[in-house]
Write a structure and sequence with these properties.
It contains 16 helices and 44 strands. With 720 residues, the chain is of the alpha+beta class. Among the domains are: 79 residues, no CATH class; 94 residues, Pdz3 Domain (Roll), CATH 2.30.42; 101 residues, PDZ domain (Pdz3 Domain, Roll), CATH 2.30.42; 99 residues, Roll (Pdz3 Domain), CATH 2.30.42; 103 residues, Pdz3 Domain, CATH 2.30.42. The strands form 9 sheets. Strands 23, 24, 25, 26, 27, 28 and 29 form a 7-stranded antiparallel beta sheet that branches. Strands 38, 39, 40, 41, 42, 43 and 44 form a 7-stranded antiparallel beta sheet that branches. The longest helix has 21 residues. The two termini are 61 Å apart. The relative contact order is 0.06.
């Protein structure tokens, strides 16, 4: 019986295993109570297991169970030793990832888990945690935070390898704690396992459970990661140790203190972990070569049909045109019984397919492989030469001067499109307002770009360099001829390469300024104030240090006449009348107001001055590296927010969602006060500072902003 076998294995480990500590000693998981809770949970499982007895026909391992206190002590010791071996190697991973969308690369913060698996500081985690990472920080269990780099990633297995920058440690000479892989093939249903990770981005934690399933795959291959069907390769280890978002990439650990899986998903109450035997193979290849090389033969297989009488193998469901399988003569409906001399057991369910795929993937690229099988009951032999398996979806790259994202064309896509070559750049997304969107006809998702100004495009790198060279030579968008394939057509279009003038400015007219805000004196207001006047304005705000303030104007004053003429404002629609009366006066003119203050006649003189710089009529600047737009802070806004007229700062008018500025916490409406401790008063000063940043490419740029009543520093870290 499973439970008795499990109990016996625990006793065997307790009595016969020796643990050689290669890590720092672990003091507690989250205090003694947490560790006790884990032990108690295990005891609950084992106690229930022991009470059920052995299966008929089997010899009980222990006819007389140990007394309860001894069981408890043995299990607690095993769990503590497993935690001691692996927990110090556990890391929380904080990452900034980039993914394409709407013609630009969007940034997003995320967190996950991982484990250090070598003295050099290599870390294994999930591809979906760090595979698109552009900025990665890891936190050790001693709370040290260290930068890490992405060594390589593999979407098909959902695994990534990182490396810690050990020179950034407080004590670089101190050895890094690290864990080791165990053999996932030795796992059996009911084995006790520990899931370690950082759920919800919290500090490192441990939960306990048992192995529930050894061949768990997504139904119908539904789990897709960047075009890869994870079920082609992976059969998850199912377990009931509690995991949450943030646990992804963390180790699944046996009671010997070995990593037997890498947690990837949660399905209901079950967790799914990538077997360690696959994880270790992928890890070694990425560390050695930076990527995983796999063979491809261009066919799809499926379980044997119910109507088939064959006792071994699997059936060919599809053969891709032009692929190795077609060239070898394999056809849909053929049954493959052996591959490279290895007999294949009968595949009766989808869970049986990954084993065959691994045989194919693991062959060295270019291998000549003998295959035996049958066609309509007759024996057939084939010889096939494997080709390199490309990623289903190569990474996207942004071509900023055109406002689009592209990726390389794969062999599979070329076969689907019936193209003889993989040359070109596939359009993935187009940004509204960019050169690609404004061309006639406009470029769109799915187009394959083949030439730019008559020069062939081989890969995305070529295309990026060609576009950058054109953009750098001109100060305004440059018309260029692009050739692209759409469906069966070859089309040409003129695109404008480059960023429209980032300094979208309108010359400021020189206007006279008094420094007041007013409302129309309507008949109803006049009657309520008990004044006989039926035309004029009431002062609602006086700007400090303005001509009006210096003239002694107060809030509540009624202006009835301007230089002896009645101010013809008597209805709400006349709100602009007073301002329009001021507008024709030359700067420096002294004007006279006649009116009332608290019912007493009033006469004041004020000398008009030029409108302060703070009005900023439509002066804006957009920076595509920092992904934000700023504009001058208009006088009306300063007045409305009760800011001094001459206070420095510009308004952040737009922040690209999922951009670098947004990632730093900057939001539309913020007032930008300084950049790297340099006070900014105008848009032109912001432009100068950010252009200088493009040239010096600092790692961080500190923006000091005002939001409502408070201020804050925002550290922007663009990827240059």
């Amino acid at each position: 019986m499973i439970s008795i076998r499990l109990f016996a294995s625990v006793l065997r480990l307790a009595s016969g295993s020796s643990f050689h500590m290669r890590t720092q000693s672990f003091q507690s998981v989250s205090g003694g109570m947490a560790l006790w809770a884990i032990a108690a949970g295990c005891l609950g499982v084992l106690g229930a297991a022991a009470s059920r007895g052995a299966d008929p026909g089997t010899t009980p391992v222990a006819s007389t169970p140990l007394p309860q206190p001894e069981q408890e002590t043995a299990l607690r010791g095993l769990i503590q030793q497993a935690v001691d071996r692996v927990y110090p190697a556990l890391v929380r991973i904080d990452v900034v990832t980039e993914s394409g969308g709407s013609g630009r690369m969007k940034k997003m913060r995320g967190s996950g888990s991982g484990a250090i698996i070598s003295p050099e500081g290599y870390i294994v985690t999930n591809h979906h945690v760090a595979g698109r990472g552009t900025r990665i920080t890891v936190r050790l269990t001693n709370r040290e935070e260290l930068p890490a780099t992405l060594v390589g990633t593999d979407a098909l297995s959902d695994l990534s390898i990182l490396k810690i920058d050990a020179t950034a440690r407080l004590d670089p000479t101190r050895p890094l704690a690290h864990a080791s892989f165990g053999d996932s093939e030795t796992l059996q249903l009911g084995d006790v396992v520990l899931a370690m990770g950082s759920p919800a981005g919290l500090s490192q934690s441990v939960t306990q459970g048992i192995i529930s399933n050894l061949a768990m795959i997504p139904p119908g291959g539904s789990l897709q990661i960047e075009g890869e069907s994870v079920g082609e390769l992976i059969r998850w280890i199912g377990h009931d140790a509690i995991i949450f978002p943030g646990n992804s990439g963390g180790p699944l650990v046996n009671l010997a203190g070995q990593i037997v899986g890498v947690n990837e998903i949660g399905v209901g109450s079950l967790g799914g972990a990538i077997p360690s035997n696959i994880a270790e193979t992928v890890t070694r290849e990425i560390i050695a070569h930076g990527a995983v090389s796999r063979s491809w033969i261009g066919l799809g297989v499926q379980p044997l049909l119910k109507s088939m009488t064959t006792e071994n193998g699997l059936v060919v469901g599809s053969v891709l045109p032009g692929g190795p399988a077609e060239k070898a003569g394999i056809q849909p409906g053929d049954v493959i019984g052996s591959f490279n001399g290895q007999a294949l057991p009968a595949a009766r369910a989808v869970e049986d397919i990954p084993a065959f795929n691994r045989l194919v993937f693991n062959m060295p690229v270019g291998s000549v492989v003998p295959i035996k099988g049958s066609r309509q009951g007759s024996p057939v032999e084939w010889t096939i030469t494997t080709a390199v398996r490309e990623p289903s979806l190569p990474p996207e790259v942004e071509v900023q001067p055109l406002g689009l994202t592209v990726r390389n064309v794969t062999k599979l896509l070329s076969l689907e499109r019936k193209r003889a070559t993989t040359d070109g750049a596939l359009v993935v997304g187009v940004r509204n307002g960019g050169g690609a969107a404004e061309s006639k006809p406009a470029l769109r998702e799915g187009d394959i770009l083949t030439h730019l100004n008559g020069v062939s495009i081989t890969h995305t790198d070529d295309f990026q360099k060609m576009v950058a060279a054109i953009a750098e030579k001109s100060t305004s968008p440059t018309p260029s001829l692009v050739t692209f394939v759409r469906d069966a057509e070859e089309i040409v279009a003129v695109v404008r390469i480059g960023t429209p003038s980032e300094n979208n400015r309108v010359a400021k007219p020189i206007r006279p300024w008094l420094g007041v805000q007013t409302q129309v004196l309507t008949r109803e207001i006049a009657e309520a104030l008990k004044v006989d006047a039926r035309k004029g304005v009431r002062v609602t705000h006086v700007v400090p240090d303005s001509p009006a303030a210096k003239a002694g104007v107060h809030v509540g004053d009624l202006f009835l006449q301007l230089d002896g003429r009645v101010i013809p404002a008597g209805s709400p629609s006349d709100q602009d009348v007073f301002d329009n009366l001021i507008l024709p006066y030359p700067i420096g003119t002294t004007i006279t107001f006649g009116g009332l203050r608290n019912g007493t006649p009033l006469q004041l003189e004020a000398q008009l001055i030029a409108t302060p710089e703070a009005t900023g009529d439509l002066e804006i600047f957009r920076d595509d590296n920092f992904e934000l737009t700023v504009r001058e802070l208009p006088l009306a806004e300063r007045i409305a927010e009760r800011l001094p007229v001459n206070t420095p700062g510009v308004r952040v008018s737009e922040v690209q969602p999922n951009g670098w500025a947004a990632l730093a916490g900057i939001a539309p409406g913020d007032i930008l006060l300084s950049i790297d401790n340099t006070v900014v008063k105008t848009v032109a000063e912001v432009e100068t500072l950010l252009i200088r940043c493009r040239e010096t490419k600092p790692k961080q740029v500190v923006f000091f902003i005002r939001r409502n009543l408070g201020t804050a520093f925002a550290e922007v870290e663009p990827r240059w």
